[in-house]
UniProtKB/TrEMBL annotation:
This is Nucleobase-ascorbate transporter 12 isoform X2. Residues 103-116, 140-149 have a biased composition (Basic and acidic residues). Belongs to the nucleobase:cation symporter-2 (NCS2) (TC 2.A.40) family. Residues 129-139 have a biased composition (Low complexity). GO terms for molecular function: transmembrane transporter activity. Residues 11-26 have a biased composition (Pro residues). Signal peptide: none annotated. Residues 41-51 have a biased composition (Polar residues). It is a multi-pass membrane protein. It is found in: Membrane. The chain crosses the membrane at residues 216-234, 279-298, 305-323, 329-350, 362-381, 529-547, 553-572, 584-602, 639-659. The keyword Membrane applies. It holds the Pfam family Xan_ur_permease.
Length: 709
């Protein structure tokens, strides 16, 4: 070291350095790995609650690139000059560290797996893979810095040279095309694993609208067709990520609120078609608003307010908001509903690592397998006469039953038997859904405003899905323009959902990220082929009839799992932020608490405990428009305010977005989403191939800078 340097390097101490003091003796795992806990006597808490480490000399480590999700290469000198002697020994001739115990000779990084047990991770790219990197100076075990911890949360591995190979755990990446047969198989598998998200929404809203089994089958076929078409459009002209589009749970709460509006309570005859036309009108207006939000570039401005701390409680609140519907219906037939919930839990958790022919069947198909087994068990019980009661007929309305014996058992006969639905028998073999099949849409301003606000929540949901999926399958995250283009196209495809009459808008399903991570399939072509298969199935009427015949108890049991998964996937967005920050913990906690408490106040206001209502108990939270506390001389304003403030996701979004954008915090602490720069993305061929529009369409729209590369 020359004397001309302004600051002298601190004199090194004894080697290896003495471990820092800790209030608790380290465990055996801590001794093996060199882990030092954050909350030790040597650390200090900053203003935001983060643990600030004492400054230490900068080490020549490979610092990760947070935007690309991989380690940034450092220049390697050909012949490094030895450092001056320290304690009588040259820096380049450091003695090796003490050998670890015999049981720990294998690399710990190769044994560490993710939650699915498939992908090895490394929280310290430079320290945990020395054995495979060839001869290199040994280093003392050290705690990884925060940036490394943030990268380790991403689904990535680090190769032997220290460079990030983020997609090494994926079977096929975004632009891979392994052949027609594998693509067809993986595409069908992708959609089958998301069966619950695609078909369960119609099974909830159609009976609430007064529809019969034929209406349910027709709406299911329509959903399959619209989901296939919108997925193809999104894959080709939207975000270009392998994301399935479908009836999102985000639209379920406002749909139920509109269905249970006071003006629809006294309808008799064709109630289903009348309410469906009202929903179509509200969805079309909200979809047009979402398309303008995306294609006008306003979404790029809104992105500045949307961060992981906002997305996490908002999406979690969507799943938690339906607790009143899940288990209360499962309780109608416990021996069937409980068994199905347990089967799905066993398959997805206890048997998730079992692989058959290279595929983790139980984890990928947990929902279809649980449904099939419980359905078969219910069928055997029905055929064995377990639910036959002498002199009782399930087809007789409960109001006409005179016998007290039959009144007591009619509920079990209705919910436990699997032969009460005639949907499969009455469905035609060929039925092509067509636009305006329920009649011309009806437009009401108050319902359209409610749906417009919900379309913003749907866009927030899609932002989280775009970011998480791009880190799994693409070379870089999309640019703000590509994201705006995807949101704009979601608006246009939701217009198609409104015209065809699916009952809800079309959006990117949150479960996409989980499905991609589990199946290891990120090919855009696979999703497109699967969408084509979905379109073919939609015109086969018996498919819709078969799905419509799923018993109500089984639907509720599946929804218990799906909504729990949705809440967990929402909270998983916190991995892109400092999850241990007291700032973020308080914001997320307040958002979730008020998301549950404020709607409860609105939903319970003005309801007498002994009041008799024709609306089932599990739909009581959605009749708030008739008795909410917001009362002015304008009926439309009362409807909008009472309805919006009774929705959990709306409260969670507004509380989180206000607190996250007003409470001070660094970008790293807040976990601000890192999107690719437009000019830098255009210079990288891999990014251009990932996100550019096909058929050279993008060259005609290069002037629209806010919706493309």
């Amino acid at each position: 070291m020359s004397s001309s340097e302004p600051k002298a390097r601190p004199k090194p101490g004894p080697w290896p350095p003495a471990p820092e003091s800790s209030p608790m003796p380290p465990s055996s795992w801590a001794k093996r790995t060199g882990f030092r806990p954050k909350f030790s006597g040597e650390t200090n808490a900053g203003d935001s609650g983060q643990i600030s480490m004492r400054p230490r000399p900068r080490e020549p480590d490979n610092q990760p690139d947070l935007e690309a999700g991989r380690a940034r290469a450092q220049p390697q000198p050909v012949a490094p000059r030895p450092e001056p002697a320290a304690n009588g020994q040259a820096q380049g001739d450091k003695p090796p560290l003490p050998a670890p115990p015999a049981a720990d000779k294998d690399q710990p990084a190769k044994r560490r797996r993710d939650s699915d047990g498939a992908v090895p991770k490394s929280s310290s790219p430079g320290a945990n893979r020395r054995a495979s990197a060839g001869p290199a100076p040994a280093e003392a075990p050290r705690r990884p810095n925060r940036s490394e911890e943030a990268v380790d949360m991403l689904p990535q591995t680090v190769d032997d040279d220290g460079f990030g190979s983020r997609h090494s755990h994926m079977k096929y990446e975004l632009r891979d095309n392994p052949g027609l047969v594998p693509i067809t198989f993986y595409g069908f598998q992708h959609f089958l694993s998301m069966l619950g998200s695609l078909v369960l929404v119609p099974l909830v809203i159609v009976p609430a609208m007064g529809g019969d089994h034929e209406d349910i089958a027709a709406v299911v076929s329509t959903v399959l067709l619209v989901s296939g078409v919108t997925t193809l459009l999104q894959s080709c002209f939207g975000s270009r990520l392998p994301l399935i589009q479908g009836p999102s749970f985000v639209y379920l709460a406002p749909a139920l609120a509109i269905i249970n509006s006071p003006e629809f309570q006294g309808l008799n005859g064709n109630k289903f078609k009348h309410i469906m036309r009202e929903l179509q009108g509200a969805i079309i207006v909200a979809s047009a608003f979402q398309a303008i939000l995306g294609y006008s570039g306003l979404m790029s401005i809104l992105l500045r307010l949307i961060n992981p701390v906002v997305v996490s409680p908002t999406i979690a609140a969507v799943g938690l908001s339906f607790y009143s519907y899940g288990f209360p219906l499962v309780g109608k037939c416990l021996e069937i509903g409980i068994v199905q919930i347990l089967l799905v839990i066993i398959f997805s958790l206890y048997l998730r690592k079992i692989s058959i022919l290279g595929h983790r069947i139980f984890l990928i198909y947990a929902v279809p397998l649980g449904l099939a087994i419980s359905w078969a068990a219910a069928f055997l019980l029905t055929e064995a006469g377990a639910y036959n009661y002498k002199g009782c007929d399930v087809n007789i309305p409960a109001s006409n039953i005179i016998s007290e014996h039959c009144r007591k058992h009619i509920s079990r006969m209705k919910y436990c038997r699997v032969d009460t639905s005639l949907a499969l028998k009455s469905s035609p073999w060929l039925r092509i859904p067509y636009p305006l099949q329920w009649g011309a849409p009806v437009f009401h301003g108050k319902m359209a405003i409610v749906m417009c606000v919900v379309s913003i929540i749907s866009s927030v949901d899609s932002v989280g899905s775009y970011h998480a999926s791009s880190l799994l399958v693409a070379s870089r995250p999309p640019t703000p323009g590509v994201l705006s283009r995807g949101i704009g196209l979601e608006g246009l495809t939701s217009v198609l959902a409104g015209l065809w009459g699916t009952g809800t808008g079309s959006s990117t399903l949150t479960e996409n990220v989980h499905t991609i991570a589990v199946t290891k399939m990120g090919s855009r072509r696979a999703v497109e082929v699967g969408a084509g298969v979905l379109i073919v199935l939609s015109v086969i009427g018996k498919v819709g009839g078969f799905i419509a015949s799923i018993p109500t108890v089984m639907v509720a049991a599946l929804l218990c799992y799906m909504w729990a998964m949705l809440a967990a996937l929402g909270l998983s967005n916190l991995r892109y932020s400092e999850a241990g920050s007291s700032r973020n913990i308080i914001i997320v906690g307040l958002s979730l608490f008020f998301a549950l408490s404020i709607p409860a106040y609105f939903q319970q206001y003005g309801i007498s405990p002994n009041s008799n209502s024709s609306v089932p108990s599990y739909f009581q939270p959605y009749i708030v428009a008739s008795h909410g506390p917001f009362r002015s001389k304008y009926g439309g304003v009362n409807y909008v305010m009472n309805t919006l403030l009774s929705m959990h996701m709306v409260i969670a979004f507004f509380v989180a977005v206000i607190l996250d954008n007003t409470v001070p915090g660094s970008k790293q602490e807040r976990g601000v989403y890192v999107w690719s720069d437009r000019e830098a993305a255009r210079r990288e061929p891999a990014v251009a191939k990932d996100y550019e529009l096909p058929f050279r369409v993008s060259k005609f729209f290069r002037w629209v800078k806010w919706v493309g590369l």
